Amino acid sequence: MSSKPAKEQPKKKRVALALQGGGAHGAFTWGVLDRLLEDGRLEIEGVTGTSAGGMNAVCIAQGMARGGSETVRNELRDFWTRISESGKNSSLNNRGPIDKAMGNFTMYNSPGFMAFDYLSRMFSPYELNPMKKDPLKDVIMKSFDFELIRTQDKCKVYLCATHVYTGKLRVFTTTEMRVETLLATACLPTLHSAVMVDKEYYWDGGFIGNPVFFPLIYDCETPDIVLIQLNPTVRNRLPTSAREIADRLNEITNNSSVVREMRAISYITDMIDKGELDVKKHKRLFMHVIEDEAAFQDLGWSSKLNTEWEFLMHLFEKGRTAGDAWLKENYDSIGIRTTAKMTDHFVGQAWHKNAK
Hints:
Layout: E1 13-19, H1 26-39, E2 42-49, H2 52-66, H3 69-86, H4 97-102, H5 111-122, H6 125-128, H7 135-143, H8 146-151, E3 156-163, E4 169-172, H9 179-185, E5 195-197, E6 200-204, H10 214-219, E7 224-228, H11 242-273, E8 286-290, H12 293-296, H13 309-330, H14 342-347, H15 349-355
Parallel strand pairs: 1-2, 1-7, 2-3, 7-8
Antiparallel strand pairs: 3-4, 3-6, 5-6
């Protein structure tokens, strides 16, 4: 008897990922990635990331180099487990009794955070932490094999940082991955001293690129870019307290580069579709966004420092749910059309109407 031929596996769809930064909120991205990797129908060609998004990006590259999707899932879980462990004994990274009793994941009522918030307005990290102790550095050193990451060819990686002196964007590529480049992309100037890379000083990339798309456009073949967004684009309530205003300004600032690039991409795409640009000379992109704005509506800036495992798992599950919903609704559109709500979230109604 002849055996039945093996069932042919469906060809994977290739995408590039853009991962926003947001401290502990990056656990949401971990959840999204875990679901996408579990599904197994996507091939990740390249990843651009800032801050926590950069950490997740390097986890992807290392996992792909070591084995594949399941290995990446393990790398991500190990990294976030270490993040939680590193903050267990810190009053800055854990909620106070009031917030716990109220079921809040923010830390505005935590004595440790309140003390930090006050001191950071009066003193710089150079004064408060002259020895430059950084638990994140220890986590990075335990988590990543940079020689492997620099030499692997399974996944391209791009990390965003802000050059302190010029205010310009710096993108570190795969061959530049090392401890300092990861620290640079996550360097909040109120928390950490500026990070030196190649004799230049850098801060967190979120100020100017959170993240940037152009490395994926120019250096990756796939036309499909998936943004995993952490900072809410839309809020339906006017911020009126000092804290609410500061939190909303933080969100707007961290989304500003994404909004600008999305507008440019939308404009170029419209011109290509109208035949005003040669598709042979200009890359036609399909943009996608995975988000859950409701999950972040009640989370202020302070929760980005919350490394409690309960909170990280809360965001992880939210991310898995969002990833699953996106796959069900949009997988068939990959390679065919844009699924992101470009007008509602990025372009703006008035601008879009005028452009027509």
